[in-house]
Amino acid sequence: MKIAASYKDIKIMAPDDASFSFFKSPFAAHDTGSAVDIAYGDFGSMAVLPVDGTVVDVKEFDSPTPFKDRDFKEYITAILCGELLVKILHVKPAVKIGDCIRAGEYFGTFIRSGYYYFWNFPHLHVEVRRPDDYLRASNNMVLDVPVCVIEKCNNKPENLSVFEFKGEVVFSNNMYALVDCPDYSTFGLVNGYSVKGFLLDGFIPIGEHALQRFGLIGTKQNVPPFKYFKSIGDSYLVHPSSVNLRVFDGNDQLLKVAGASFILSFGKPLIKLVPTQHGACLPQCGEKITVKIAKRIHCMLK
């Protein structure tokens, strides 16, 4: 287990092969940098605890969903850690109130609730809250991110106004495709894809989408490469209208996709390509892909 985030003395742990994100979700707590989504396993598989503590509440409720006749139960597991509480969503708990638990122990199974997009991985949604205020969605207890100096990746000049990532599709189904760009990924305490010393975190759409921001995570020693509308500690939120994202195949032909999702990882970082709709055409395993991101104000991609 490794530290995915922290708040004061509370360390939020994740398996060594986990991926995680602070800004890929439209939940209110992600807008303030107060939540982390930790992804691993499959829907229906075991989820492990991210903290030590005592279970003080378990709630079940119906999550919103656009699908008729589909029952999307959602759950809150509340764990008291000293004077503060850790709130967990998206897991059907196998623990009960009063249980004393430790990080790394099994505590439930991953579910797909109505809060999910079709292309989401199974994950824990984790927040630190006050014990008297943990049910509402909004939160301003900002998490610390375990990202220090971002190492420059190979073959990637730092003075370009267009950032590109070249790689190969390593997985593809009717919900998303995963692209590995080994010469353009950054490795350190946390792995990902960087622009000007910041790791990209979140979904960058092509066109309008409910996710109307993505994150840049780094340190204040560097100047963000894109215009941002909000700073949160060492992170910055960028509106997708500030950038122009395009995806090309091996023949330099423009691909029709909804966008690209960037997520942090302890292991190999991958870029997720999202189709325009469930089942729409996506590149297949082995195909070469180039993802380009440019400042919309300065240049347009072909």
Summarize the structure.
0% of the residues lie in helices and 43% in strands.
Could you characterize what this model shows?
With about 300 residues, the chain is mainly beta. It is about 0% helix and about 45% strand. The protein is built from no helices and 25 strands. It has strands at about 1-5, 10-15, 20, 35-40, 45-50, 55-60, 75-80, 85-90, 90-95, 100, 105-110, 125-130, 160-170, 175-180, 185, 190-195, 200-205, 215, 230, 235-240, 245-250, 260, 265, 270-275, 290-295. Strands 13, 14, 15, 16, 17, 18, 19, 20, 21, 22, 24 and 25 form a twelve-stranded antiparallel beta sheet that branches. The chain has an eight-stranded antiparallel beta sheet with strand order 10-6-7-8-12-4-3-23, with no helix packed on it. The protein has a three-stranded antiparallel beta sheet with strand order 5-11-9, with no helix packed on it. Strand 15 and strand 16 form a beta hairpin.
Query: What oligomeric state best describes the polypeptide chains here?
Result: single chain
Task: Estimate the global geometry from the Cα principal axes.
Answer: globular
Total strand count, please? 25
The ordered string of helix (H) and strand (E) elements is: EEEEEEEEEEEEEEEEEEEEEEEEE
Largest sheet: 12 strands, antiparallel
In the predicted model, the low-confidence regions spanning at least 5 consecutive residues are 298-302
Q: Name the structural class.
A: mainly beta
Kindly, what is the distance between the CA atoms of the first and last residues, rounded to a whole number of angstroms? 43 Å
